[in-house]
Amino acid sequence: MTPRRPAVPGAPPAPARVLTVRSADGAPLHVEVHGPEGDRRAPAVVLVHGWTCSTAFWAAQIRALAADHRVIAYDQRGHGRSPAHPACGTGALADDLEAVLEATLAPGERAVIAGHSMGGMTVMAAADRPALRARAAAVLLCSTGSSRLVASAKVLPLRAGRARTWLTRRILLSRAPLGPVTPLSLRVLKYGITGPGSAPHVVEACARIVHACPRAVRHAWARVLDRVELEDGVRRLPVPTEVLVGASDRLTPPLHARALAAALPHCLGVTELPGIGHMTPVEAPEQVTGRIRALAATHLPAGARTSAGVPTSAVHAEESA
C-alpha cells in the first residue's frame, strides 16, 4: 500500500493535478501540481524535499506561490506517497528529478528548482543530466551539502573528531523506530533539526513529517547520505544558483553553504539566517518563499515562458485518482 501523506499543521492545499511519474528504473513517484495549470504567465517552480520528509514539508511555499506560479512538488522514492524501491543512491535521485521535469513541464518550458537537504543533493547529482540542463532556469539550494555530512554534523554537543563522527553515524543510521510524537521526542527533534527559538507548532509540524517516514526508508537513505560525494556535481551545475542556510543548522552547518558558494560556477550569493536550524522552508517560510519568487521573476521572464500543463511524455506520467 502506498503511504499516505501525513496530516500536519498548515498542510498544503489540494493539488490541481496528481500524477504518478515513472522513473528510469520504473520506480513510481507521487507528483502534485498546484496553481494555474493553463496560464502562460505562471512561472513553473519545482520543489524537491529532503531525507525523511514529503511534499507536506513545502506547505508554506505551495500556499504562497500557487496563486501565481505553477508549483510542482514530488515525494522522493520511499517518502510520502512514493513507494519504497530497492534502488537507493544519488543516481536514482537524479533519474527521478529528470523524470519529473520531463513529465510535468511543457516542451521548451523551464523552471526554478528549489532543493532542501537531500533535495539539494538531488539537484547536484543531476548537474550533468540533459533534462536539468534544458529545464532549470535557476536553482535554490537550502540547508544542504555535497560531502562529509556525518563528520561535519553538530547534532551531538561534542568536539569534532572521530568519536563524534562515530556516534553521529550510529544515531543517523539507526534502525530504531521513532515512535509517536511525544513531548520528549519534540525536545530531541527541536535540538537536532530546528533553531533554538522555533515555535512549538513549527517543531510539531517537522516532527509529524519526519516520524511518518518508514524506518527502513530512513535507514536506507541515511546510508546513502553517509557516503555522499557530489563536489564534482556542484562544480558542473550550469545554472544561476543561490544558497541559503540556517545559522543554527546542526545537520548541514553553514560551512557547507560556504563551500557550495565557493565551488558553484554561477553562484548568486549565500544567505545565512540567524537563529534558524536545518528545516529552513518550515522555520523561515517567508524568506525561502521570497527567494524562490525572486529567482522566478529574474530568470523566468514572462516572454520566455511557454504554455504549461500537459506532460511531455504520456509514457512516463499517469493521472492518479
Overview of this structure, please?
- The protein has 13 helices and 9 strands.
- By secondary structure, it is α/β, with parallel strands linked by helices.
- It has a 9-stranded mixed beta sheet, sandwiched between helices.
- Helix 1 packs across helix 13, helix 2 (90-104) crosses helix 3 and helix 7 (183-193) crosses helix 8.
- The longest helix is centred in the N-terminal third of the chain and has 15 residues, at 90-104.
- The protein starts with 16 loop residues before the first strand and ends with a strand.
- GO terms for molecular function: hydrolase activity.
- Residues 45-288 form the AB hydrolase-1 domain.
Mean pLDDT: 90
Largest sheet: 9 strands, mixed
Give the end-to-end Cα distance, rounded to a whole number of Å: 15 Å
pLDDT < 50 stretches = 1-9, 303-316
Structural class: alpha/beta
The count of DSSP E runs of length 2 or more, i.e. the number of strands, is 9
* Overall 3D form: globular
Keywords: Hydrolase
GO molecular function: hydrolase activity
InterPro entries: AB_hydrolase_1, AB_hydrolase_fold, AB_hydrolase_sf
Domain AB hydrolase-1: 45-288
List the helices and strands and how they pair.
Elements (H helix, E strand, L loop, with lengths): L16 E6 L5 E7 L9 E5 L10 H7 L4 E5 L15 H15 L6 E6 L1 H8 L4 H6 E7 L6 H4 L9 H11 L10 H11 L6 H12 L3 H12 L4 H6 L4 E6 L7 H10 L3 E7 L6 H4 L1 H15 L17 E3 L2
Helix pairs in contact: 1-13, 2-3, 7-8
Question: Keywords for this structure?
Answer:
AB_hydrolase_1, alpha/beta, AB_hydrolase_sf, hydrolase activity, hydrolase, 13 helices, 321 residues, Alpha/beta hydrolase, nine-stranded mixed sheet, 38% helix
